[in-house]
Design a protein that fits this description.
With 528 residues, the chain is an alpha+beta fold. The protein contains 18 helices and 20 strands. The protein folds into three domains: 164 residues, Rossmann fold; 94 residues; 234 residues, D-amino Acid Aminotransferase, Chain A, domain 1 (2-Layer Sandwich), CATH 3.30.470. Helix 3 links the parallel strand 1 and strand 2.
Amino acid sequence: MTSRQDEIASFKALQQKLPAIWEDVHRQPRAPHSCLIIPSLSFDQEELQKVAGVPFYEERLMFMLMRLRRPGARLMYITSQPVDADIVDYYLQMLVGVPPTHAKRRLTMLCVQDASPRALTEKILERPRVVDRIRQWIGDTNRAYMTCFATSPLERSLAVQLDIPLNGCDPELLHIGSKSGSRRAFREAGIELPDGTEDLDSLDAAVAALDELKTNKPALKRAVVKLNEGFSGEGNALFQYPETMPTEPAARDQAIREAMHSLKFAAKDHSEAFFFEKFAEMGGIVEEFLDAEEVRSPSVQLRITPAGELRIISTHDQALGGESGQVYLGCQFPAHAEYRSMITERAHFVGEVLRDHGVVGRFAIDFLVYRDPGEEWDCSAIEINLRMGGTTFPYIALDFLTGGTIGGSGDYRSRTGVVKHYFATDALTSASYRGLLPQDFLEIVIHHGLHFSPSTETGVLFHMIGALSQFGKLGVICIGNSEQEAMDLYKRTREVLDNETGELKTDEERRDSGQLMSMFDDFPHLYD
């Protein structure tokens, strides 16, 4: 059996091949090459299962099928459960200039037929015949690479067994993307971050950190306690300080411990005991809750290519919601112009730090920008996501479909020169959507003209279609030529689905829907 040290050495040797393969593929798109897509959510599975519809998040990378527009590309997409044939055809019909039948001949969909709540890559590794089948499909390993939603030691093991490089972050560097690692990277980059303490590993340590934070900032009313490896904000908890804090140390400690019983968890299934069990297992941080009259949650997406080139890819304003107001619900592209340059400048500083540490691949940096009336925007970096995320694939879809470029201002222009905007969410949800099969849903889309039009370069794209029947949950990307058009497309999509299925929303769905739409209300001047 290969030791961990041997595996790491083999992986590092494989990664040395990536720059040449990457350059060759982009220089000669018609030359034969193979791309293996592994949309595995290789995170803490107990935390992950708190996300509704998470088994179908493996479908979020289906936009990668657009790589088949390169005539020489062969692509294998692996999932835990089968993807409906109509869903595959839905993505293939988006290819411009390539007949869907030609693309389909170069596509292999492989399912491991395992719905258990574990990482997809783990399921692949425990099936030697599946690994052999993938290896046979790859053929020439000198013209093949693997793309994953996230990387972990599991993906490293699979890359070594398949003898192909991984186009993503070395798992040995993932600590940089933890909540604690992010804070250290921000300090190294010399940018602003919230006051707080990282590398905590117990309830006692969190209590002490909350006490220190309150001592340093007596006016502080709230703080955030975060698990190092939370997903989509689900690992956060909002802490409310007592209105009156004692002055005697033991009494302060007791007051904070009692207030802990009222933590507001981003994940609805968390309890105080379970949360701090995970906190002790993976570590975490405590930091101040930044509060002001106006607060926004923008993010910057970056990429460090295998050749070491650092690129700012995109910016987004994010909609956060849930009971704690910290769960990712959706995003708007691009981020507001008033603070876009502020966050991209700081993101570039962080990107340079990550490049120096050897990071490769796509990643995102989340910020908070805030101000009181009459003041300028302030900015704090919140966390680094060393993986793809909810803002990754909407931009990939836009780029593949419109073939444009992003300028120095952060605006994106399609090949026809039109500035593009979009609104995207994974959280278009209603109990009334349950039971919709892919065929039913696509009939509704076609009947109402809810689809992307290559001629106008506007319309709606859908993902996670497979989650509709069981969870009543759907992802949408609404691409328009203005913020208003993107907003109108989303509203129309929601209205059509509600009318077709009978509007029936739970209190939680109404809350999240309202929080999602408040993004537009927050910036009314954008739509003048």
